[in-house]
Design a protein that fits this description.
By secondary structure, this protein is mainly beta. The chain contains 2 helices and 17 strands. It has 2 domains: 38-133, Sandwich (Immunoglobulin-like); 138-280, no CATH class. The strands form 4 sheets. It has a 5-stranded antiparallel beta sheet with strand order 8-17-16-15-13. Strands 10-9-11-12-14 form a 5-stranded antiparallel beta sheet, with no helix packed on it. The longest helix is centred in the first third of the chain and has 18 residues, at 2-19. The N and C termini lie far apart (79 Å).
Length: 290
């Protein structure tokens, strides 16, 4: 009987240790909810916002819920879901992008947060990063040397249209001298500067606050990006795609939000321009897009 009673005693003792405590407040409660995504950030588009994140180091993730608000800290509503990739090795999985919000309207600022849902239906807290963005229009335009066709040498960002180089609606215009193209501010209240060579159009995401050309014109260089501050206090950028015999092919983007220098995601914690691999980093020190 001693051999039987001894293991039974141990089992009962184990139950006593697990199930009883003098202070119930010290009992450990296991949270079965998954971890939320991390590293959430957004990329500005034209009537669209691209959302990126890192998945949790877990395999029991069924999907992610994408939520949006017009405020930084409340009133988030679901706008879509994304099925999670299987993660048997518990690796860091990068969702690039994980979701595109095609319902975002240009010049409006939106905040985004994401939660994880496991196969049992448990939903995590929302992601912690204040990911927000303001979409803006973009496109490609061919501007002619004013000496060849002055009626199509200028560009009006607000109306996304070619205009005459001397039109009151023109923000910038193109001319050529000594075989070199120049981008010119169309009036004394419009400012321009060259931000240098960029491999991608989105390498410049935040218009600088100073450094504008005192001359009001810049020499055109292939693959350089030029930022413009218009006379009515809107920001735009031009990227030189090609130099033709009598014209330039330019990619453009224009921020319809008044005095909003966001042309793509802002830099991390500053209002400096974004060049190179850091252009996707966001400002996490504020809750607004200013």
């Amino acid at each position: 009987m001693k051999k039987l009673l001894f293991p039974i005693f141990l089992i009962l003792a184990a139950f006593a240790v697990v199930g009883c405590d003098e202070d119930d407040d010290d009992m450990v409660v296991v949270d079965t909810r998954p971890q939320p995504p991390q590293g959430v950030y957004t990329v500005t588009g034209d009537n669209a916002i691209y959302i990126f994140w890192n998945g949790p180091y877990e395999r029991d993730i069924k999907e992610f819920v994408i939520k949006r608000s017009n405020e930084a800290t409340q009133n988030y509503s679901e706008i879509g879901r994304r099925t999670a990739d299987d993660n048997p090795n518990l690796d860091l999985i990068y969702y690039s992008p994980g979701f595109v919000d095609y319902t975002a309207g240009n010049s409006n600022t939106y905040w985004y947060a994401i939660s994880s849902v496991d196969f049992a239906g448990h939903e995590s807290d929302l992601s912690a990063e204040p990911a927000f963005d303001t979409p803006r229009p973009e496109g490609v335009v061919e501007l002619w040397d004013m000496a060849v066709d002055g009626s199509e040498a200028g560009f009006d960002f607000a109306n996304q249209d070619r205009v005459a180089w001397d039109s009151p609606a023109a923000d910038v215009y193109v001319d050529k001298a000594g075989g070199i193209y120049y981008i010119n501010a169309a009036n004394v209240s419009t400012y321009i500067q060259d931000l240098g060579y960029c491999e991608y159009f989105e390498n410049v995401g935040w218009a600088p606050q100073d450094g504008w050309s005192a001359r009001g014109w810049m020499e055109v260089i292939q693959n350089h990006i030029y930022v413009i501050k218009t006379s009515d206090k809107h920001y735009a950028k031009l990227w030189v795609l090609a130099e033709n015999a009598a014209s330039l092919d330019l990619a453009w983007a224009y921020q319809r939000g008044y005095d909003n220098p966001e042309l793509a995601p802002r830099s991390d914690g500053t209002d400096e321009i974004v060049v190179g691999p850091n252009y996707l980093k966001r400002n996490v020190s504020t809750g607004s897009s200013k």
